[in-house]
């Protein structure tokens, strides 16, 4: 047996002993009475009766252990040219003071604090300050539309909202305060606000309701960490709901701490003092888990980057950050790598930087197509690791465990299940499918530590959404298959499995064919309603810079390639060249919207859309 297999088997043999052993690396004010509480199954709870504090584990214990001078956070803003470094001791000082600010404004354990913030250090400080006093933070991506922000304010009912005067995008300043004011008016909230003043933008404050961060911090009284139940909520993180009502995923303190530490050590091979960079945003689960919590719990240095992979100023931005801060591991969405590849297909910018400290590139957030993985391997000459997880889980369902052993990489697969995850493939009727059979990916209950506690104020919705369809199993909402070695292949959301004349086909497999074409930078395939066949696939293709072939030739080649690789059964006869794909701010491709446009159906512009102008471009490419 391999090292991974032994560890996975040890979890299977005795799950509770496995996680109790993992919990020994966390500081507990009081040990648990029960490792796994099954009372509210399928919404299990871990480490019942234990007392801990996430901020204490992320900050204070390192200072107490004599590591206060170690760099905890590096803020690198490509937007302003600023770089600021904070030691663990300095973070402790800022966090304890802002926790005091919150206390002074009446925030106590269990109260909600909403953050509507750009990627600045105050955002991380505010999250950890909430954790310090047992307030439940809910982070909303800075710049979110007022109406969507209002929905989250209505649901979470925050006592305090922490924001900034503005966020920065290439070529523009986004004023946050007017958006926040409108959201407060829509929601009729009585929350007070604390605003970080940025030099790029002023804000009008309403007397008695709005306060500047800097003024409050000058008179703040520091406070210590509160002893919390392991099962107390740490945060609420909203995901888009299919009904249009956002789902507030609730995360606990104790189980989350254990999962964060275990994954940093075993998935990412990070040791205390290593430099880790998750190139995401704190508005998403990646930012929660791997910008803020996991690196600091592990005693690493974490990078907070304000910028883009390209355009701030060029396609060498990521290599510059890795070189400047001696980054050991980068975690990024494949879409960012594809953007770099599109601008700099030969990796010429990389020659300008010394990335010799770099050890591993991790990809997640969407399917990592083999072409992107292979290009990355060629460019950086280090292991490129695809792994798969969800907001609901907070860490990897499947991964290649660099802290245990570097398993064989199979292109197109995020490798094998993490301890804690018994992954199966089910048919729509609930029958377990064998190797290479496409079906619904499910996980046997219970979810391991780090899994969601439930949905804020609506656990019945949680059960109906995730646990009702296949009793005893968590429905991931993703479709895929396993091979004979147990490697999982994610072929897209179950919505992305289309039915063409009775044949279930994965749009992900068609995308894989298109992405292997030498002129294709990135692509998406969606199902479009068809009277004759039920659905037909439609391809959207973005070309690499400098492509010399005609668009007609590329489309002809694309159609022929899918026909050759997948067969005529795919009925792939429609493709269009577009300048870019519509994506969320986290980089996920909005396939459902593209399907609606191609099918001439009504659709609602998602609040998470990075740039609404893209939809007009898509329509023009399809119908002009």
Give the structure's gist in a few sentences:
The chain has 624 residues and is of the alpha/beta class. Helix content is 32%, strand content 26%.
Explained architecture:
This protein has 624 residues and is an alpha/beta fold. The chain has a domain at 501-623: 2-Layer Sandwich (GMP Synthetase, Chain A, domain 3). The protein is 32% helix and 26% strand. The protein is built from 18 helices and 33 strands. The strands form nine sheets. Strands 12-11-8-6-7-14-15-26 form an eight-stranded mixed β-sheet, with helices on both faces. Strands 5-4-17-16-18-19-20 form a seven-stranded mixed β-sheet, with helices on both faces. Strand 14 and strand 15 (247-252) form a beta hairpin. The protein is globular. The model has no long low-confidence stretch (mean pLDDT 93).
Regarding quaternary structure, what we see is single chain
The CATH superfamily of the domain at 501-623 is known as: ANL, C-terminal domain
Estimated radius of gyration:
24 Å
Q: Describe the strand arrangement of the main beta sheet, using strand numbers.
A: 12-11-8-6-7-14-15-26
> Class of the domain at 501-623 in CATH?
Alpha Beta
Distance between the amino and carboxyl termini: 59 Å
- Find the CATH topology of the domain at 501-623: GMP Synthetase, Chain A, domain 3
Overall number of strands: 33
| Overall pLDDT metric | 93
Number of helices: 18
């Amino acid at each position: 047996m391999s090292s991974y297999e032994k560890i996975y088997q040890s979890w299977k043999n005795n799950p509770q002993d496995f996680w109790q052993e993992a919990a020994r690396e966390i500081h507990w004010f009081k040990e648990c009475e029960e490792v796994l509480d099954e009372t509210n199954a399928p919404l299990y709870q871990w480490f019942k009766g234990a007392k801990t504090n996430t901020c204490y584990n992320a900050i204070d214990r390192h200072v107490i252990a004599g590591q206060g001078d170690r760099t905890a956070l590096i803020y690198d803003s490509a937007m302003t040219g600023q770089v600021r470094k904070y030691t663990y001791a300095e973070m402790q000082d800022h966090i304890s003071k802002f926790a005091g600010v919150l206390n002074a404004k009446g925030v106590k354990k269990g109260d909600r604090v909403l953050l509507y913030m750009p990627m600045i250090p105050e955002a991380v400080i505010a999250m950890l300050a909430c954790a310090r006093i047992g307030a439940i933070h809910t982070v909303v991506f800075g710049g979110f539309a007022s109406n969507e922000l209002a929905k989250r304010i209505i649901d979470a009912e925050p006592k305090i909202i922490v924001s900034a005067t503005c966020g920065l995008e290439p070529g523009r300043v986004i004023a946050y305060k007017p958006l926040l004011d409108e959201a407060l008016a829509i929601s009729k909230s009585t929350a007070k606000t604390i605003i970080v003043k940025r030099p790029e933008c002023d804000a009008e404050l309403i007397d008695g309701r709005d306060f500047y961060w800097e003024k409050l911090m000058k008179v703040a009284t520091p406070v210590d960490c509160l002893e919390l139940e392991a099962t107390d909520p740490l945060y609420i993180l909203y995901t888009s709901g299919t009904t249009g009502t956002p789902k507030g995923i609730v995360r606990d303190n104790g189980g989350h701490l254990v999962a964060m530490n275990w994954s940093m050590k075993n998935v990412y091979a990070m040791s205390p003092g290593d430099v880790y960079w998750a190139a995401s945003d704190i508005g998403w689960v990646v930012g929660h888990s791997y910008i803020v919590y996991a690196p600091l719990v592990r005693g690493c240095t974490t990078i907070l980057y304000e910028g883009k992979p390209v355009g701030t100023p060029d396609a060498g931005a990521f290599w510059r950050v890795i070189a400047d801060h001696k980054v050991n591991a980068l975690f990024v969405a494949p879409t960012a790598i594809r953007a770099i590849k599109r601008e700099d297909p030969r990796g010429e910018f990389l020659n300008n930087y010394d990335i010799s400290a770099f050890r591993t590139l991790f990809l997640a957030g969407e399917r990592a197509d083999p072409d992107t993985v292979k290009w990355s391997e060629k460019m950086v000459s280090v292991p490129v690791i695809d792994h798969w997880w969800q907001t609901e889980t907070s860490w990897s369902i499947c991964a290649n465990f660099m802290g245990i052993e570097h398993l064989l990489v199979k292109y197109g697969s995020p490798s094998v299940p993490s301890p804690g995850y018994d992954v199966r493939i089910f048919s729509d009727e609930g029958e377990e499918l064998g190797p290479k059979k496409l079906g619904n990916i499910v996980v046997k209950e219970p979810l391991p530590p780090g899994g969601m506690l439930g949905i804020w104020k609506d656990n019945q919705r949680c059960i109906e959404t995730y646990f009702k369809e296949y009793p005893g199993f968590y429905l991931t909402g993703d479709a895929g298959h396993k091979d004979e070695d147990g490697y999982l292949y994610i072929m897209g959301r179950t919505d992305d499995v289309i039915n063409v004349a009775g044949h279930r086909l994965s749009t992900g497999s068609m995308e894989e064919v298109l992405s292997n074409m030498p002129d294709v930078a990135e692509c998406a395939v969606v199902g479009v309603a068809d009277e004759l066949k039920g659905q037909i696939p439609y391809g959207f293709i973005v070309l690499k810079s400098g492509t010399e072939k005609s668009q007609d030739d590329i489309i002809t080649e694309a159609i022929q390639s899918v026909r050759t690789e997948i067969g005529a059964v795919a009925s792939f006869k429609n493709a269009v060249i577009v300048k870019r794909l519509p994506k969320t701010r986290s980089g996920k491709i909005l396939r459902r919207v593209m399907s609606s446009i191609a099918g001439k159906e009504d659709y609602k512009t998602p609040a998470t859309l990075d740039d609404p102008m893209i939809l007009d471009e898509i329509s023009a490419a399809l119908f002009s």
